[in-house]
């Protein structure tokens, strides 16, 4: 016979666990404090082996684990904690988020529903975001793994709103040829959501863009709507983007809201990072005008609010449609009047996950610690830095800007004269790789007008103006090196 303590998975000696845990916390704090000295580090062979050990039939214990985490895992971060990480759209993470993750882990709350502290925290966060984006008090919301998941939820609600609850039983049999519309540069998450919901990629019309903010050409949008209606298609939704992933372009949400009202269409806004312009200074704030008129809004905290991965959210104006799209309470999930099984809402009724983690705490903590004003100041700084980068690009003869910088994204390329465009593309890819490997600056690449561009998306609260100077100097140095060869 063995006693239950022998089979316990809890620490045998809590005092020694405490010491090991404190040591790991110190390592985490050192990592954060030295973010500027710790760029992305390539995963070498030794590290790879350490990160992928054989299936652990027998464990090494918490003490060795704590050391392994500090020495073999922690150093190999993506690098987005560094002030010159501008690739893709990677948020930096905040010190308050580290504290929140610790507390959340100790609590191990399941936020699918029931009546306990974590639910009230999530409710508070959703309420705050409703206020920030001007949604009505009775709008519903949910924290998600990110804008991709938020988009699926929003479009599912849009469909129920437009087609009625029966779509849950009959699927798309009653809903053939439903069409959604978005800007040419809209994110792949929107197409994926329509694919996943069974409409297929062909149900998404990509409308060309125009104008200084790079938004959808509304004349073309109206033409496409008329064409589709004439062909017996059923337009149901317009997806506006505030902050396109490639260039930070913004649709004119107000004008699209007017159009959706006229045409009886659901207005979904993909505001993944860009919707946070709403709390920035002018002129950036104006790019987020009209968000309060959206039927649904998908956005992230893990990009431009700098909160740790992963955390996005969806807000839906029509709580009943949101609920109608997802609520399902079999016997084992019946609500109680009182006790842990009480409370309302249960978040499992607003999305596809039943068991859910306590994402809300990191958002709650970051907002509590820094306040909207400090986060907003950092967001405005990032916009200023992107504009500064654009000015440096414009005065560099060998560099060429890819698109006007309207928000926090700057695309540019090395375009040496007399080199054919394909070879220029290759050079730009080489520059991105070289600078990443050298740990100088992380840029990613994208294609604009059929050409490869270097791309900086600045969602980094650690970036200083000098980092922008350094980054462009490093690019120019890399260009000079390539020119000599
Ligand atoms: C990042 C991004 C998405 C997808 O969001 P995730 O949080 O990565 O799922 C969607 N749209 C835009 C504009 C984005 O930048």
Which terms would index this structure?
single chain; 485 residues; alpha/beta; 7-stranded mixed beta sheet; 4-stranded antiparallel beta sheet; globular; binds pyridoxal-5'-phosphate
What does this structure look like?
The protein has 485 residues and is α/β, with parallel strands linked by helices. Helix content is 42%, strand content 13%. It contains 14 helices and 13 strands. It has helices spanning 14-33, 45-51, 61-73, 95-107, 117-133, 147-163, 167-170, 188-196, 218-230, 253-263, 319-326, 360-395, 421-437, 465-484, and strands spanning 140-144, 178-183, 204-207, 209-210, 215-216, 234-241, 266-270, 296-300, 312-316, 399-401, 409-414, 444-448, 451-457. The strands form 3 sheets. It has a 7-stranded mixed β-sheet, with helices on both faces. A 4-stranded antiparallel β-sheet has the order 10-11-13-12. A two-stranded antiparallel ribbon has the order 4-5. Strand 10 and strand 11 form a beta hairpin. Helix 4 packs antiparallel against helix 12 (360-395), helix 6 packs across helix 8 (188-196) and helix 12 crosses helix 14. It is globular. The model has no long low-confidence stretch (mean pLDDT 95). Bound molecules: pyridoxal-5'-phosphate. Pyridoxal-5'-phosphate is lined by residues 89, 146-148, 187, 189, 241, 243-245, 270, 272-273, 300, 312.
